[in-house]
Design brief:
The protein has about 170 residues and is of the alpha+beta class. The protein is built from 2 helices and 5 strands. Strands 1, 2, 3, 4 and 5 form a 5-stranded antiparallel β-sheet that branches.
Length: about 170
């Protein structure tokens, strides 16, 4: 009698073993998928941080360029002079077409800042008068200008960019 019961239950053990194997395979697949998502997020975050660092370097470069090329000092600013000296290029009537750094209202790209290589990326720097109510981008009533820097990094087919704007004022 015992031999018959054993023979009838033999297939049941194989079914349980297969079910456990399938569940462990699914669990392993989910873990690998989760790790892959985490790696992608980490790669994106690292690229974003690098683009931000490049944009910050662009702001530093822009401030130094304003100081050395346009005699700009924050202690005794001549903002209207700075804005007047940064002309729209003849070959570039819109200031900087096809450039994200100048897509909004009246930004003027610094002449040497069209696309400056920095580390493994590039930055672009633009300047404009803040909205001080004078309706004239070349005049400055409140001694305040804005500086914008766009940092870009390309890894493979992915381009990551970060944009920073600062206000420069003596008030």
């Amino acid at each position: 009698m015992k031999l018959k019961a054993f023979v009838q239950n033999r297939g049941f053990s194989i079914m349980i073993a297969m079910a456990v194997t399938v569940m462990l395979t699914l669990l392993g697949t989910l873990v690998l998928d989760s790790v892959n998502i985490d790696l992608t997020l980490a790669r994106t975050d690292r690229a974003s941080q690098r683009a931000l660092s490049i944009a910050e370097a662009g702001l530093t470069w822009g401030m130094e360029k304003l100081r050395t090329s346009y005699s700009f000092e924050t202690a005794t600013p001549s903002y209207a002079t700075v804005l007047a000296l940064i002309k729209v290029q003849d070959d570039d009537p819109a200031g900087c077409p096809n450039s994200t750094v100048c897509k909004l209202y009246d930004w003027r790209q610094l002449p040497d800042g069209k696309s400056v290589s920095y580390g493994s990326g590039t930055f672009q720097v633009a300047v404009r008068d803040d909205d001080d109510g004078d309706l004239n981008e070349g005049a400055d009533l409140n001694k305040t200008i804005m500086l914008r820097s766009l940092g870009k990094i390309t890894e493979g087919n992915d381009t990551t960019s970060r944009l920073i704007e600062i206000i420069v004022s003596t008030q």
